[in-house]
Amino acid sequence: MIVALAVAAVLALGPLPAVEAPLPPGNPPRVPVSGLLAPDACEDTGGAPGPRASDPQLAGLGLDAAHRIATGRGVRIAVIDTGIAPHPRLAGRVTGLGDYVRGGSGLEDCDGHGTAVAGLLAGAPSADDWFRGVAPDATLLSIRHSSRAYTLGGSSGGVGDLGTLADALVLAVRAGADVVNVSEAGCVTIAQAEEAAPPLRTALRFAAERGVVVVAAAGNVGKEACADGQVPLPGWLGENVLTVGALDARGGPATFGVRGPWVDVAALGTGLTTLGVPAGFTRDPVRGTSFAAPLVAGTAALLKQQRPDASAREIVETIVATARPLPSVPRDAVGSGVVDPVAALARTPTADTAAAQAPPAVPDPPPTGRPTAPLPGLGRPAEVEAPLSPGVAVAIVVACMAALPLVVRSLRRRP
C-alpha cells in the first residue's frame, strides 16, 4: 500500500501532451525474436475441477441478469497477452492472429496467463459447475505479445516490448476486433514513457476512430512490477484506453494496484477462478489487475452486442457512468467505481457528444499483405515506424508483464 501511494503521488500529473507518430504497420512476425531461448516445458496451471461452491464472481457482476440481455454473441475480442491455449470451454471460438514471441499463430500459451484472461472474458458455461466468462458467446482473437516463460540471451525478464504492443493493437483492429483486452503493462519512467508513447497513442486513436474499445490493466506494484516513479503503459496514456484497477475480496482497492488519475473503473482482482492450461481450472485463485481488466472488457463486449453501432467513446462513457461509486475510496485507485454490467446494459443510449468528440481519423497504413488466418511459415518481424530506444526496449523486456507477476507466482504454486 505504501509503495502504491508513493507511485500515485509521483505520477499525479499524468501524461504530457500527445506527440504524433506514424501508424505502426501492424505486421505480425513470422520468426522467433532474435536470441530467444525457449523454456524446457510450458507452465501447467490447470487440473483443478470446476468450482461448485458459491459464486462471488457471478454475484458481484450480476451475470445472470446481464446474460438475459446480451452474451457477447457476434462480438470479437482481441486478447493481447501470452497467447491462448486450446481449452474445451473456449472450443471453436478462438482464432490466432499472430505471435510476437516466436512467430506462429498465437495459439500457444506457455505462461497460462492469456488463457486465464480468456476464460474470464469468454469461458463457456457448463451444467457441471458455476464458471462462465462475462461474454460467453463472444469469439476471441489471440495475439501472443509477451511471455515470461521465454527469455532473451539468458536474461530472466521475459519477452515483449512497447513497440510491438503498438503493432499488436493495429493488427487487432485490422483483423476486425470490436474490443481489445491488454492485461499487461510496461513499467517505465515518465521520460521513457514519453519516448515510447507516440506509436501507442497513434494505435489507440486508430482503434477508437474505428469503434474499437481498448481495455488495459492498470498494472501492479511490487517486486518485478511497477516501482516508485514508474508509470504503466498503455494505461497511463488515458485517452482512448479504458484503464482498470483491482478490488480485493472485501470490495476495497487492492493493495497491489498501481494508482493514478488515469484509472477509469475497477473490478474484482483477487480470489478469481478461471481456465487453466492445459485443461481444467487454475489450482489456486488468481489475482492482479490483469484479471480485473477482462471483467470490464467482457462488459464492453456485452454492450457491443446490444449496441453494434455505438462508438468506442459511447461504450466507454456508459461503463464509466454506470460504475458503482465507492465514495470512501480514493478515486485514483478505482476511478468512477466498480464495473456494473447490468446497469450498463440498462442505460438508455442518449444523443450525446460522442460523435462530435470522436478522435480524428488516422489513415490506414499501406497494404502489408498481412494474413488474417493463423500464420504458417517464417519471416522477419516488421520494423516499427517510430522505434523505441534500446533503453526503453530493455525496460519493457524486463517489465512487460507488470500487470501480472503476483498472479504468475500464484499460478506456479503447487497444492
Describe this structure in words.
With 415 residues, the protein is α/β, with parallel strands linked by helices. The chain has one domain (2-412): Rossmann fold. The chain is built from twelve helices and eleven strands. The chain has helices at residues 2-10, 56-61, 63-66, 113-122, 162-174, 190-209, 289-306, 312-322, 331-334, 341-346, 390-399, 405-412; strands spanning 36-37, 76-81, 94-99, 139-144, 151-152, 179-182, 186-189, 213-217, 230-233, 242-247, 265-268. The strands form three sheets. The chain has a seven-stranded parallel sheet with strand order 3-4-2-6-8-10-11, with helices on both faces. Helix 4 links the parallel strand 3 (94-99) and strand 4 (139-144). Helix 5 (162-174) packs parallel to helix 6. The longest helix has 20 residues, at 190-209. It is globular, with a radius of gyration of 19 Å. It starts with a helix and ends with a helix. Residues 1-17, 351-360 and 364-415 have low confidence and may be disordered.
